[in-house]
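Predict both folds.
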Amino acid sequence: MTALREFVLQDLFKFNRIVFDPLTEVYPLLYFYNKILEFPLLAEVAVAPDGQMMGFLIGSRQVDGADRVGDGKDLDLNNNHGHVCTLSINHDYRCLGLGTHLMKRFNNRLELKQDLFVDLFVRSRNVNAIRLYKSLGYVIYQKLPCFYGDDDGYDMRLPLSRDVERRCLQNQEYLMGILFLLLRLPRKYLISLWHALLKLLTKKLF
């Protein structure tokens, strides 16, 4: 039976087989060390009956103190959110729903904190991970060109229950709405709009 427990520092010497997967980002040990110490309740590992590490998730939180008013308890005035720093599953234990289970447990912890949303970064070519995140409700918020040096990245977000109006996706939905409207315009209007934009830029620059 799979056992879920808190990720401890000793696990940093056991997870090489997992983190050296081609689609898992390799960070310095100090990165993991700092995250685990700062957010111990947001780091979890799944262990097989024989003690082998099956997978793990390490997360963090961003507490937006700049937006707080008074004692900071007015939830509508803060942008607190969680971040999935890394999720990785041992190749031998994939397709068992383990990644889904770890992600849901992480999201539930942030729900208890009444955070606004959860976000994560993923390689654009990691189609299996993107499919998993979309099945959990995550949306591609923006594309990040050359984010990984040799590959583009996606910033994906999941609005939590407090974000009833999906505020965390508004910028993305606004831009998509504008793009949709532009694509519906006749070609001659698009050309005219482009020329007008060029004239405006020329005046600004010169």
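Second protein follows, with its predicted structure tokens after the sequence.
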Amino acid sequence: MAVVMAVVMAVVMSVVEVAVVDVNKYTRQNENKYIRQDENKYTRQNEIKYTHCACTWPSAFANSVWEGTRGQLTFGSSTLGGLVIDVSSLDPSAGSLSTWECVNTDYFQAEGILLLKSTKKFNHINALFLAYFCFTMTRVTGVEAFYFYQSHAMEPSLNNERIKIHQAETFTTKAQICGATPPVQEFHYMVKQGQELVSKQFCPPSLLARMEYNVTSSNGAVSCTGPADSWDVCTDKTKMTFNYSTCATQMMYSSDGRVYCMFNLTTTHHYTMVYSNGTSGSKFICVVSNEAGTAASFVEGRCGQSNQSPTTFATSDGSDVGFTVTMSAAGNLDIY
């Protein structure tokens, strides 16, 4: 009996040992499947598949079109078109960058940060470079609109654009891509296409008035010097209306004399982004006004452009651009 038991135990141990050895005889197959070598005897084990975690835009942006100070921006699920950066000064053959891809949106919910990079390379100092953006975005309360900052130091080789250029192709974190914080008044703005007029806001308190005004262009021409020139921000506190029957100079680049306040920010001065749907140029204009409501300047594009103040022109490539305006109240200031 003892002999029989010994034989049985030996057989059992042999079977267990073989089972252990067989279990270890798995090979990694295509599509990350683990299959026993003897497929006639054993079934396929748990199937494990690895997928790349591709970056896709948050639902607020995916597959949508936005209008703003950076032009018309078209978001796909993971790409961005329409954001044009001229790199011809570095690489004439490259011309400009206009297509971008999502790099990381993990910071968006908590910090409003979107990270993206160019899909095209360009030559710089005898090497191939990519461009990266770190957009720090804040939603304008209650509407489909954002104001945002390009969180980088100025890049002298690209006309002081706030952008990061680098040879590395694998940057994915804000530590790698984001940089200096711009001045608070240096903001961009964008609004979802079709939502422009429902996204308007009250104009700044200093401009809630009926005003007479004189306007000076960056080339020195002075106009609208008559006593009846009218700038009305009382009838509709979200809209600036100009009477072109008394002075035909186009204000805020608007052909129909109407612009809408979209966003206000106050630091040393009032910075107001206005929208014009009656212009052939940029639809977004930055107005900088003083607290007293007696002086303002305006220029196409983002706010915080070089040297712009209520009494001085913005500058571009060393030249004055835009207009300055002096105002006097033609009616009671209506401040809330």
